Amino acid sequence: MDLYIYNTLTRNKELFKPITEDHVGMYVCGPTVYGDGHLGHARPAITFDIVWRYLKHLGYKVRYVRNITDVGHLENDADQGEDKIAKKARLEQLEPMEIAQYYTKRYLDAMDALNVLRPSIQPSASGHIIEQIEIVKKILDSGYAYISEGSVYFDVLKYHQDTNKYGILSNRVVEDMLQTTRDLEGQSEKHNPADFALWKKASPEHIMRWPSPWSDGFPGWHLECTAMSNKYLGERFDIHGGGLDLLFPHHESEIAQSQCAFGHEPANYWMHNNMITIGGQKMGKSLGNFITLDEFFTGTHKMLEKAYSPMTIRFFILQAHYRSTLDFSNEALQAAEKGLKRLLEAHKNISKINPSKECTVDIKSIEDKCMEAMCDDFNTPIVISYLFEAATIINKIIDSHEKINQENLDKLKSFLDVWINDILGIKGEQNSDMMPTIDGLVKMIIELRADARANKDWAKSDELRDKLAALGVKIKDGKEGVTWSIE
RNA sequence: GGUCUCUUGGCCGAGCGGCUAGGCACCGGUCUGCAAAACCGUCUACUCCAGUUCGAAUCUGGAAGAGACCUCCA
User: Fold this and answer.
1) Could you tell me which of A281, A261, A243, A326 has the C-alpha nearest to residue A8?
2) Nearest nucleotide, CA A196 to C1'
């Protein structure tokens, strides 16, 4: 089946065709590691995790590169170009790399919990200073950069006049930008306010610095992605992803840099996930309205009514299309939590089904529809709606409202295994070495309760049920016997 | 100010001109000692105005509201 991807470059869904047959190169902008990852960080990670998983499902061999930004982003122009990492380090009296290492680990731990597969390569900006310097040289050679007081700037105006390309991704008009760009301090080195730094000279107190032909300093805002994507994926690769908020100026500038350094654009397909909002507003560092992933997992943030498991967060995110904004609320998360539980219960209960000779359900068409939805720009909410359809089918079979034969039962099982676990990356969370022991213990109590019920000792029966419930073990009296699950 | 996007039922969220999205909540029923779970059934929609069309949530124009980017941000 043909895969269609919405390409920000053309604002259209396009048929996906990799540069090299059967192989895909994908680069995604990762986090800046100077703080704990929040819900917003989970969105691109999960979005492109799905893209990766699905491309592999389709049979592609994919190299997926997601960077770690541990240097280079300017706090703002007013503080003389102090590095974000360095600023935090001074405040906490730690080495900058100590900060970066700490938050990198925290980020990866959170991603592991969300069952986000680790990319093929996770390069860090600080490990690629030499590569970045080489790109600056190339751009200088091309004539689209200039040196000013030890720093190197990209000449946006000249680039645009010659190529008419600055703005092709973000639809921005350079002429307008020149008039609307704000007057900020520290801009005197630039020929033009729209120019951006390729290399920045470090002030004396700046502790993150590397030698270069121009000054002791650090690389500019957008350079690392150009350098690292080029190093690991080549001058041209298939997919470049990231958050919508990186569209401009970050990705626009990446294109400009590649164009000047290599003579062409870096990526064929640009994918952007939309933002997560809170109270209708973007959740972000600058607004200070973010809730960290750890806070979700532990329920410690004051806006959270309870803790939400990593899988609930993942499912919540997948229930919306990646190009739509997604609004956070306790109500929405709890709805996702309950829905996910129902889905996983049904998946688990498939083992209880006894096949019949006849079959009244159609499994094949459901899988076809899921393929169709995923091939239409990764429409996970549609896929999930079909998974719920499958869950209803399972429950109906168990309730004897429908019948299924062995062949379709096998098909249904493998369908759910593949789509829930492999493609959507959702897993049950009751995995523990102690499970066989717990199962035995609970069944023993269930037997005691059955005795009480046989004697019509309802008080005793309810007491056992309530006490188990208090421990998070839920008893379900079904027609076919008693089952239990952990809440 | 410039560029762009969005507005769907109690909540979240699909939908891209005709055909039930789905989840959660609510209500009624079956089952149950009671409850939960499951199943059956029911109820709430497309911001407003005008147009195109046999037919519009879906296309066009206008109005109102919300948001994103233009500054580090996923």
Assistant:
1) A243
2) B71
Closest nucleotide relative to residue A387's CA, C1' based: B22
8 A C-beta contact, residue A356 and residue A405: yes
Q: Which residue has its C-alpha nearest to nucleotide B15's C1'? A: A382
From the CA of A17 to the C1' of B23: give the distance in Å. 34
Here the ipTM equals: 0.94
Per-residue pLDDT in tens (0 to 9) along chain A, 487 residues: 899 999 999 988 999 999 999 999 999 999 999 889 999 999 999 999 999 999 999 999 999 999 999 985 544 333 445 677 777 776 666 778 888 999 999 999 999 999 999 999 999 999 999 999 999 999 999 999 999 999 999 999 999 999 989 999 998 888 777 665 454 445 678 888 889 999 999 887 777 889 999 999 999 989 999 999 999 999 999 999 999 999 999 999 999 999 999 999 999 999 999 999 998 899 998 888 999 999 999 999 999 999 999 999 999 999 999 999 999 999 999 999 999 999 999 998 898 898 999 888 888 899 999 999 999 999 999 999 999 999 999 999 988 888 999 999 999 999 999 999 999 999 986 666 777 888 889 889 999 999 999 899 999 999 999 998 888 888 888 777 788 887 7
Distance A376 CA to B53 C1' (A): 28
- All domains of chain A, ordered by start, with CATH? 4-273 (3.40.50.620), 277-423 (1.20.120.640), 435-486 (no CATH)
Cβ distance A278 to A289 under 8 Å? yes
The DSSP bridge partners found for residue A154 are: A145, A196
Tell me the whole-structure pTM to 2 decimals: 0.92
A352 touches strand B (CB under 7 A): no
Strand B–CB A145 distance below 7 A: no
Residues 6+ positions from A290 with CB-CB distance below 8 Å: A38, A39, A40, A278, A283, A284
Instruction: Pick the closest to residue A100 from A89, A90, A113, A91 (CA basis).
Output: A89
Task: State the Cα–Cα distance between residues A427 and A388, nearest whole angstrom.
Answer: 16
Nucleotides on chain B within 7 angstroms of protein Cβ: 1-6, 10-15, 21-25, 31-40, 66-74
